[in-house]
Amino acid sequence: QVQLVESGGGLVQAGGSLRLSCAASGRTFNMYTMGWFRQAPGKERESVAAILWSGGNPNYADSVKGRFTISTDNAKNTVYLQMNSLKPEDTAVYYCAVKPAGFPIYKYWGQGTQVTVSS
C-alpha cells in the first residue's frame, strides 16, 4: 500500500502561481510513475502531468504545457506540481496518483486538494 497526501491548494488570482505537493508513504520502493490529475465540477477527471519516480520523462497535457512543471524529490518521497500563469479554467480538485511497477493503471490516489483561480 502507498498513502498519498496532497497539499498546497488554495485561492489565487489569474496569472498567479501555486505549488502542489504530494507526499508518499508506505511501500514507496515500488512506485514507478507519478501523475497529477484534476477534476472540475461537471467535468471528467483529466490527466495534467506525469513523471517517472526517478525524475525522468515528464509529460504534460497540452492545456498546461509551458505553465506547469512536475518534479520529484526522492529523498522526501514527494512529487510536486509547480503551476504558473494560472487561468480560471485551471480551477479544479487536483489529485496525485501512483502507478506501481508492473501495473498498467494508477493504483493509489490521494484525497485531492482544491485549486481555485479567480478572474
> How many DSSP E strands?
11
Q: How much of the sequence is in beta strands?
A: over 45%
Secondary-structure class:
mainly beta
Largest sheet: 7 strands, mixed
Q: Uncertain segments of ≥5 residues (pLDDT<50)?
A: none
Distance between the termini: 40 Å
Could you give the order of the helices and strands? Answer: EEEEEEEEEEE
How much helix, percentage-wise, in residues?
Answer: under 10%
Whole-angstrom Rg? 13 Å
Quick one: overall form?
Answer: globular
Give the number of helices.
0
What average pLDDT do the residues reach? 95
Description:
The mean pLDDT is 95. The strands form two sheets. Strands 2, 4, 5, 6, 9, 10 and 11 form a seven-stranded mixed beta sheet that branches. A four-stranded antiparallel beta sheet has the order 1-3-8-7, with no helix packed on it. It has 119 residues and is an all-beta fold. It is 0% helix and 55% strand. The chain has no helices and eleven strands.
